[in-house]
TrEMBL record, chain A:
GO CC annotations on file: AP-4 adaptor complex; endomembrane system
Highest taxon listed in the record's lineage: Eukaryota
Keywords assigned by UniProt, alphabetized: Golgi apparatus, Membrane, Protein transport, Transport
Compositional bias ranges of the Polar residues kind: 783-795
Assembly: Adaptor protein complex 4 (AP-4) is a heterotetramer composed of two large adaptins, a medium adaptin and a small adaptin.
Ranges for region Disordered: 708-825
Main location: membrane
UniProt family annotation: Belongs to the adaptor complexes large subunit family.
Subcellular location: Endomembrane system
Residues in Clathrin/coatomer adaptor adaptin-like N-terminal domain copies: 39-571
Name by which UniProt lists this protein: AP-4 complex subunit epsilon
GO terms under biological process: intracellular protein transport; vesicle-mediated transport
Automatic annotation (TrEMBL), chain B:
Gene Ontology annotations of biological process type: intracellular protein transport
Record's keyword terms, sorted: Membrane, Protein transport, Transport
Species of provenance: Vitis rotundifolia
Domain spans labelled AP complex mu/sigma subunit: 3-142
Protein name: AP complex subunit sigma
Membrane-spanning residues: none
Family that this chain belongs to: Belongs to the adaptor complexes small subunit family.
Superkingdom of the source species: Eukaryota
GO cellular component, one term: cytoplasm
Pfam families: Clat_adaptor_s (PF01217)
Length: 951, 143
């Protein structure tokens, strides 16, 4: 290699050395060096290269300091680029920030407003809580700057400070109110952002601004703002949307404030261009606003109209918005859902995941006890089908929530929970498992022992069926073990050896999971104990024996103890065992003799013999305070973490002796809980540390599930305004047994609306009926029958099925069959819905999507050979979109082929529809030439680079 | 907060521009971009332009070979964000004239400057094309 490039120098450096070396005169040398200085000054390029490095996922931290240096530069472009790079590279806690604060301070004082703007941009990204005071005075001063761009950015800087640390700018909040009246619409528009945040936190302090917001919105809607804010013929739509969001907050639950808004919102409903996307965006925001403020019938009607237009649209985006809007409005007027039931079901069955999820959200909100089975069934099916753990968790917890609130029967509840646990057991909150165990233990609050027994035996049966399946989640196995231990042998249906065999299998199959093993061992102990107590002879299975032996040598002390306890219990006589392990007593309260009075005589005797008297631990000095070493409040979140807060002072009021249990569960002082198992602590009743408060069922927390339990709901359609409360409240109503007088009315209305549906497949219709026909239920769980019918029928027998489906969906309504109306409308209306759905749509979105080039996949392959195929593509595309002239974009200019005669005619024909902004071959050609000049020839790789984004 | 990030990604999944309004480490960004780009590129034109991803909602739109992806919070109006993307493209188009992917690659900083004018703290603050472009034009003139 010699002297050339041996050290890995760049070509530029070699060139420099070479040219200096060959310079013949001082003048020539000067020229070369000056040129080099110019090159070196182009640091901007290097910084942008660094931005690329970071953007593409590589570490560029070595160059951060250069970006920081560049912010000092005098040139505006360099300075702003420096700031840009710094904001892209650094987070607000980076060490280098300290070097920039000074520069920012200086730049905020600059005469050049562009410099000030650049600095304010950086302020918004880089200033953290600690550095706020350094720039705050200057930012506040800039609120009065003569340039609107500066005022706007200063407002946003304050907004940023508010986001970081609300207390730091609390005294400056009045500035936001002032700037709302700024002359410049841009500043006003920006001010809405911080005001929205403030109002979201505390709406009451801003009620006085309702009038101002309404009048601003009115002016915007009346096109009083400069034309430059128009977007697709809509006057400042983004400002309108933000104002509507603010009004929604301010009018929520405030009749007086809401009344001020009715006129302007109504105006916008009327004025909005419903053919453009942006018009629909504003309309959607109007619906959100209407459903948030105090209801107004006229506006609700307008909102319902828009929703039905959205839902009927072919565009998935509009359907999505429609479903979302529906779920908002349904809180206020529940009856609106019925007219859209088929559209909703279409969305539910759509292959598009996004739409499906949105629809599930809607269903979740409209669940009541009459349709809970169908909805939860669907949710579970969907849950099983997806892989996304995040969403799986969400939908699983929703299933559980709905099942707990609305379960129509115990059996169904158990089955549902089994399914949820089976497929998402490790994703749901462990509380859910405890709830389930407690439910099985306590029954459902009815004083009916046989029902409880049935429930338990059905649970046992279902678990024995499931238990053999591989890969059951740990939480589910715990539930299974617990239930089998408590109730496995209860009915006398299964022998102890059968149950214990199953339990041993579980423990063996999950030998790596200590928790499951612990549950299994304790369950074994219970089964044996019940056997002994019943006077039967216990023959421990050999595999069971070996399991116990293995566990008694386990590394886990917990497992060891359980194993030894089991061995001890088995040797006891029936009487003792019955006291230690009472049968079916998991819900009994345990009385604890906190003073341990039975030890008194022993203590006295010891004292007489000269033993040291006991000193309460809070009187002992220098000893570790082990107060609260154990609390009954075992949070899921509490983990083995370090505690940073100081130890609590000794409580003198605490019970002085023996394992004082803090009665007030303090969240700060969560002790490190060893993994303890409810069952164990309960049954080893002699352990004194069991707390006597709260958890009678020892950590099975139910949080009022009992209360939520209810019979099928009769949702009263009249309560439109008060209905916006949560589902719980609705269910609460059912508990107080609203009489079924209101149902007949609902039945009629729902019946009518149902008969209006067209021919759509009977399958769907039945689903719709079971989802939406809710209010008309009089019997317990009729929907399940209709659902089953829906499943079993074949769509081929549509005609005969139609009426039957409807009939079955409203079981118990005898009068219905007599309704003469029914079959004719069914047949007559057949055509209608199909027509609307297949009508050629003038959907703006579709047209926009039409801009995308479907031929790209092929064109990317080989540019040189493309011209022929390209022309063909264009033609084919042309025929594909005969109605849409906009497909001309596809005729993207391919500059190198400009001479190709095939292409140009293709272009001109497609272009005829002549919209202003067509692709311009000459422009693209120039660009191409320029790039080629620079030596970049990406053509063979990626012709797309030259494609106009906007056609 | 509203907008949490804006990405431009081409059909091959290469990032062309990335702006985050909350701090993510390099690793997190890389993972996030990979996941959502895979998700969005797999969708067809009939499907919604919205995708849920973890706690984000992604609103995306395709122009020729380039995807524009905006990650937003739950409270945001998706349709409006979709139009915001279009406004951004229109603005770039006004500045560059028949804007194409290569324009953005060669003038990455300009594309960023436009975004800086339009979005601050994750909120849309400016939608007038004239106001967005003025500072950039002034800067061009000065240098």
């Amino acid at each position: 290699m010699g002297s050339q490039g041996g050290f890995g120098q760049s070509k530029e450096f070699l060139d420099l050395v070479k040219s200096i070396g060959e310079a013949r005169s001082k003048a020539e040398e000067d020229r070369i060096v000056l040129h080099e200085i110019e090159t070196l000054k182009r640091r901007i390029e290097f910084i942008i290269r660094l931005v690329y490095v970071e953007m593409l996922g590589h570490d560029a931290s070595f160059g951060y300091i250069h970006a920081v240096k560049m912010t000092h530069d005098d040139s505006l472009l360099l300075k702003r680029t420096g700031y840009l790079a710094v904001t892209l590279f650094l987070n607000e806690d980076h060490d280098l920030i300290i070097l920039i604060v000074n520069t920012i301070q200086k730049d905020l004082k600059s005469d050049n407003y562009l410099v000030v703007c650049a600095a304010l941009n950086a302020v918004c990204k880089l200033i953290n809580e600690e550095t706020i005071p350094a720039v705050l005075p200057q930012v506040v001063e800039l609120l009065g700057h003569s340039k609107e761009a500066v005022r706007k950015k200063a407002i946003m800087a304050l907004h940023r400070f508010y986001q970081r640390s609300p207390s730091s700018v609390m005294h400056l909040v009045s500035n936001f109110r002032k700037k709302l009246c700024d002359n410049d619409p841009g500043v006003m528009g920006a001010t809405l952002c911080p005001l929205f945040d403030l109002i979201a936190v505390d709406a009451n302090s801003y009620k006085d601004l309702v009038i101002s917001f309404v009048s601003i919105l009115k002016q915007v809607a009346e096109r009083r703002l400069p034309k430059t804010y128009d977007y697709h013929q809509m006057p400042a739509p983004f400002i309108q949307i933000r104002l509507l969001k603010i009004l929604a907050l301010l009018g929520s639950g405030d009749r007086q404030a809401s009344e001020n808004m009715y006129t302007v919102v109504g105006d916008i409903f009327r004025k909005c261009d419903s053919t453009s996307n942006i018009g629909n965006a504003v309309l959607y925001e109007c619906i959100c606003c209407v459903s948030s403020i105090y209801p107004n019938p006229k506006l609700l009607e307008a909102a319902a109209d828009v929703i039905s237009r959205f839902l009927k649209s072919d565009s998935h985006n509009l359907k999505y918005m429609g479903i979302d809007a529906l779920s908002r409005l349904i809180k206020i007027s529940p009856e609106i859902a019925e007219q859209h039931q088929l559209a909703v079901i279409d969305c539910l069955e759509d292959p598009d995941d996004t739409l499906k999820r949105k629809t599930f959200e809607l269903l979740y909100r409209m669940t009541k006890s009459s349709n809970v089975e169908v909805i939860v069934d669907r949710m579970i099916d969907y849950m099983i089908s997806i892989n996304d753990n995040h969403y799986k968790t969400e939908i699983a917890s929703r299933c559980v929530e709905l099942a707990e609130q609305f379960a129509p029967s115990n059996h169904w509840f158990i089955q549902t929970m089994n399914k949820v646990f089976e497929h998402a057991g490790d994703l749901v909150n462990s509380k859910v498992a405890h709830n389930l165990m407690r439910l099985i233990a306590e029954g459902f609050g009815e004083d009916d022992d046989t029902a409880d027994c049935q429930l338990r035996s059905s649970a046992v049966e279902s678990y024995l069926r499931i238990i053999g399946e591989p890969k059951l989640p740990s939480a589910f196995l715990q539930v299974i073990c617990w239930v089998l231990g408590e109730y496995g042998t209860a009915g006398g249906k299964y022998s102890a050896s059968y149950i214990t065999g199953k339990l041993c299998d579980v423990a063996e199959a999950h030998s790596s999971n200590d928790t499951v093993k612990a549950y299994a061992v304790t369950a074994l102990m219970k089964v044996y104990a019940f056997e002994i107590a019943a006077g039967r002879k216990v023959d421990m299975l050999p595999e069971c024996q070996s399991l116990i032996e293995e566990l008694s040598a386990s590394h886990s002390t917990d497992l060891q103890q359980r194993a030894y306890e089991l061995q001890a219990v088995v040797t006891l006589d029936a009487h003792a065992v019955e006291i230690i392990m009472p049968s079916d007593a998991s819900c009994e309260d345990i009385e604890v003799d906190k003073n341990l009075s039975f030890l008194d005589s022993y203590v006295e005797r010891s004292l007489e013999q000269g033993a040291q008297p006991y000193i309460p631990e809070n009187e002992r000095s220098g000893m570790i305070n082990i107060c609260n070493f154990r609390s009954q409040d075992q949070h899921d979140t509490s983990t083995h973490t370090l505690r940073f807060e100081a130890y609590e002072l000794p409580k003198t009021s605490a019970p002085p002796r023996i394992s004082p249990v803090s009665l007030a569960p303090s969240t700060e002082l969560v002790p490190v809980p060893e993994p303890s198992y409810p069952v164990e602590t309960h049954h080893v009743a002699s352990v004194p540390s069991v707390s006597d408060t709260g958890s009678t069922e020892l950590r099975l927390r139910l949080d009022g599930v009992q209360k939520k339990w209810g019979r099928p709901t009769y949702s009263s359609p009249a309560s439109s305004s008060s209905d916006s409360t949560s589902l719980k409240a609705v269910n609460g109503v059912t508990q107080s047994d609203v009489s079924s007088t209101s149902t007949s009315r609902t039945r009629d209305s729902s019946y009518d609306s149902r008969s209006a549906q067209g021919e759509i497949s009977s399958e769907k219709k039945k689903l719709a009926a079971s989802l939406f026909g809710g209010p008309s239920k009089t019997e317990k769980r009729p929907s399940s029958t209709s659902h089953k019918v829906a499943r079993s029928t074949s769509p081929a027998v549509e005609k005969s099925q139609g009426p039957k489906a409807v009939a079955s969906s409203t079981t118990g309504v005898v009068s219905e069959k007599a309704a003469p109306l029914q079959p004719p409308p069914d047949l007559l209306d057949l055509g209608e819905p199909t027509v609307t759905s297949s009508a050629p749509s003038v959907d703006p979105f579709k047209q926009l999507e039409g801009l995308l080039d479907p031929t790209q996949a092929t064109s990317a392959a080989n540019y040189g050979a493309v011209d022929n195929t390209k022309a063909a593509d264009i033609m084919s595309v042309y025929s594909e979109f005969p109605t849409s002239g906009q497909s001309s974009v596809i005729a993207n200019p391919l500059p190198t082929n400009a001479g190709d005669a095939n292409l140009i005619p293709g272009l001109s024909t497609t272009n005829k529809t002549g919209h202003a902004k067509g692709p311009n071959p000459r422009d693209a050609l120039e660009k191409d030439a320029l790039v080629r000049q620079m030596g970049v020839t990406p053509m063979s790789q990626n012709p797309n680079l030259f494609r106009d984004l906007l056609g | 907060m509203g907008i949490r990030f804006i990405l431009m990604v081409n059909k091959q999944g290469q990032t062309r521009l990335a702006q985050y309004y909350e701090y993510l480490t390099l690793e997190e960004r890389r993972a996030l971009e990979g996941e959502i780009v895979r998700k969005c590129l797999a969708r067809n034109e009939q499907q919604c332009s919205f995708v849920e991803h973890r706690t984000y909602k992604i609103v995306y739109r395709r122009y020729a070979s380039l995807f524009f992806l905006v990650g937003v919070d739950n409270g945001e109006n998706e349709l409006a964000i979709l139009e915001f993307i279009h406004l951004l493209v229109e603005t770039m188009d006004r500045h560059f004239g028949n804007v194409c992917e290569l324009d953005i690659m060669f003038h990455l900083e300009k594309a960023h400057f436009m975004l800086e004018e339009m979005v601050m703290n994750g909120c849309i603050v400016e939608t007038s094309k004239a106001n967005i472009l003025t500072p950039i034009q002034l800067m061009d003139k000065a240098s």
